[in-house]
Amino acid sequence: MTLHQNLIAGEWVGGNGVANINPSDTNDVIGEYARASAEDAKAAIAAAKAALPAWSRSGILERHAILRKTADEILARKDELGRLLSREEGKTLAEGIGETVRAGQIFDFFAGEALRLAGEIIPSVRPDIGVEITREPVGVVGIITPWNFPIAIPAWKIAPALCYGNTVVFKPADLVPGSAWSIVDILHRAGLPKGVLNLVMGKGSVVGQTMLDSPDIHAITFTGSTGTGKRVALASVEHNRKYQLEMGGKNPFVVLDDADLSVAVEAAVNSAFFSTGQRCTASSRVIVTEGIHDRFVAAMGERMKGLTIDDALKAGTHIGPVVDQSQLNQDTDYIAIGKREGAKLAFGGELLKRDTPGFYLQPALFTEATNQMRISREEIFGPVASVIRVKDYDEALAVANDTPFGLSSGIATTSLKHATHFKRNAEAGMVMVNLPTAGVDFHVPFGGRKGSSHGSREQGRYAAEFYTTVKTAYTSA
Ligand SMILES: NC(=O)C1=CN([C@@H]2O[C@H](COP(=O)(O)OP(=O)(O)OC[C@H]3O[C@@H](n4cnc5c(N)ncnc54)[C@H](OP(=O)(O)O)[C@@H]3O)[C@@H](O)[C@H]2O)C=CC1
Ligand SMILES: O=C(O)CCC(=O)C(=O)O
């Protein structure tokens, strides 16, 4: 089996490969991927530091061409890369290909942004002095990504980092090295100079921690759990480094009496269960007003009966497996916790057997839940959702906002008044009306409030805020 190595200073290096396993079929080994040591991580950081002076002054046409070429290759290979993604992460083939296309579009977007770099000239308050405001690269950027979006999240961090002239040390999640390796291989062949982008696949506790401890990393962008996010924050404060965190969610989806029932059910099922519920934008709290509650729950049950849970690569599968045994244990633990807390398991929640050994779980829907239960407060990160019954819109909004998180918030309603009020008053970075809480555009800001996020927004033109630092220059005539 071919060993996929790490890329350090423009060379493919490293041995000690570990097997990348398919969660739909644990007998299927996708490939062998090198695991970097702390020494490898240090070498990658040194390479990124050495490459910074030249790359930060590189021409915008060079950056544009490399990002554009990368976009073109990702889009041309979308079926193959989407299949690899689904095979290593377990989301369905349609979702895997969709995410791959999104990654291609992100590189295309930032290829364009490289040609639109601009500053400002502002008159000084003093006569005969000019003030120029420019954006410069922030420096060596450390990128640490999770397993649930193996190509889109690396894309939306690597593309702006390179576009704005930074060099990169990239550590993908240990569970999904295949998509990460492919994207780095494409960028390398697209002509990136040595050391501009370094790939260090390996354990967070070794490679990630070495990045956190290095004074030579000037900014870290992280997506993952709240616990690791806090470590990134503490280490970054220690080094006075810029950092950006995207951590979990407990996203509410409100259904009002006046909702179109089929729109509400479709959006709730998508929010809670698609991508096996493994999205930080997933909704696991469905807050339903009492006039529609019983009809909504019955319709959810019917819709859930029609879901096919099977091998991610099989035609007709709606929901693939959970990513691994440890996440499956977390999901089933929360199902047990919900039952103990007194919520009613209305549908699903059983482990499933399929033709191949994999981590299959029937999506679970609790009813009679309260917002104080642990299943309503803690991120489960699996296909488990609970319905919370409320009296009216005011109570729905209060319950929706009563959470330590604030990433995405959704509502199903035909009332313009309530939709408008909800958009203004939902305590979240993203609000969805008659749409799932998950599934976002690639060219607009992404991020949350409260415990979900820290730092400036990712994606779209707002990404420039994180990947650049502002310089104000005064010139006397
Ligand atoms: N907001 C989101 O999108 C996500 C949220 N989560 C939440 O997190 C839970 C656990 O998932 P998990 O993958 O373990 O999340 P982690 O936060 O552990 O993983 C995210 C990334 O951080 C790395 N990492 C782990 N420890 C360190 C460290 N000490 N220093 C630097 N980097 C580190 C991981 O490496 P490695 O995996 O290689 O060890 C991975 O690349 C999920 O059940 C879910 O609740 C998970 C994924 C995405
Ligand atoms: O909703 C989406 O499409 C993006 C979600 C995401 O980035 C995440 O769940 O980690």
UniProtKB/TrEMBL annotation:
Pfam families according to UniProt: Aldedh (PF00171)
Keywords: Metal-binding, NADP, Oxidation, Oxidoreductase, Potassium
Signal peptide: none
GO MF term list: metal ion binding; oxidoreductase activity, acting on the aldehyde or oxo group of donors, NAD or NADP as acceptor
PROSITE patterns: ALDEHYDE_DEHYDR_CYS, ALDEHYDE_DEHYDR_GLU
Domain Aldehyde dehydrogenase: 16-472
Catalytic residues identified in the record: E246
Family the entry assigns: Belongs to the aldehyde dehydrogenase family.
Protein name: Aldehyde dehydrogenase family protein
Organism: Ensifer canadensis
Taxon lineage: Bacteria, Pseudomonadati, Pseudomonadota, Alphaproteobacteria, Hyphomicrobiales
